[in-house]
Amino acid sequence: MHTDDESVDLVVAGAGGGLAGALRAARAGLDVIVVEAAETFRRGNNTAMSTAMIPGAGTRWQHEAGLADSPAVFRADIDAKTHGQADPVLATALAEYSAPLVTWLADDLGLPLELATDISYPGHSVARCHTVPSRTGAELLDRLVSLARAHPNIDFLAPARLVGARTDETGVRAAVVEYPDGTDEEIPTRALLLATNGYGADRAMVERLMPEIAGAVYHGGENSRGDAVRIGTELGAATGYLDAYQGHAALARGAGTLVGWATVMHGGVLVNTEGARFGDETVGYSEYAATLAAQPGGTGWLVFDQRVHDLCTSFGDFRATVEQGVVLRAADAAELAERCGLPAAALERTLADAARHAAEGSADVFGRTAWEAPLRPPYLAVRVEPALFHTQGGLVVDGDARVLREDATPIPGLYASGGAAIGISGHSAGGYLAGNGLLPALGLAALAADHCGATARARSTS
């Protein structure tokens, strides 16, 4: 049992993106304890399950690629995608911090980041997503975990679940954790970072707050049960954007792997069980999840060709999908219809119409203009279903990741990041930009560590 004399500088609840905060604080000389609920977190949390895309606006990687970008351009993209609904303070803070964050991850932590220039993500006006070579969150998290476990200022408590926090008039005084045997412990601490993700694993909350996606597969961490929202509100914190989420319309049925939206952006199409397309797929994979969920049977087929297949092999999730044996191949539309159990005449018309618009570069009836190239036989297809990846609303925070009360004053020593915080996706699913999960997860955690460190230095000199 810890005593008040043994208070740590920072407790980080959640060993996903929160590890960026743990590492930044530890490297600044602070003592850190990481509390993690799952023993299998290295493969089971949302950071590990991501495609490791981290937006950075105005980085040296972009400059070397001849791409002009800036925080102002990124902020404009956020405003456009969210229709001006994103929290302005947080959107500005994260847009401005995005390039320094990517640079710190690469230069200080040694992550082998590269700019993904081969894929255009919906809503990003310029290529700004930086990622690791495998394009898997598992590689990203493995590197963060290895660094954190090797740092002498960081201790891990796992499995142990954060269940509460104790505060007084000065702010956070202790973190309350529960162990698998039902016992609990108070860990005296001067600060607490809530990095436990959102509430995607709480089916009741999902059904109440975002019913349009409640019937979809949940493809996220099992411990994303709304702990941060519960603990924060118990301490008087404000919440916001609780209807916001990241969905995905390309989860491979029967495999549980992510086919990936690069298939669409390189020219692929989605058809329903009637062999017809049902919208402009390029609006974004997040909002298209609910669109797919509304189709007959709540499922469909993602159709592409060999050219698209070859372009997507740089993504680890796509390779895993192929390895699962769920990608069907057919010599022509008639054979594809037979293999997929779709009406042949309808599918042939659908693919012919899409190919014509792609060849002409014209807009189809749904308004799609981004085609890249016509699909050509032989065709490939994967049965897909909609998924909820993670929620994007939570505790209201400022640009330093400090959790705010209803009157906009901060709760001293309490921080939130990632899905525990409000994020920058606005409301519902339509405002999600690729990287909107990892940028607040890593970025807010690092900003929290910086503020925590500054507070500790001020305390030591007072």
From TrEMBL:
Give one Pfam hit by family name. Answer: FAD_binding_2
Question: Where does the signal sequence lie?
Answer: none
Residue limits of the FAD-dependent oxidoreductase 2 FAD-binding domain? Answer: 9-430
Q: Does the keyword Oxidoreductase apply?
A: yes
Q: Has keyword Cell cycle?
A: no
Tell me which cofactor or cofactors this protein depends on: FAD
Protein name per its UniProtKB record: FAD-dependent oxidoreductase
Native species: Salinactinospora qingdaonensis
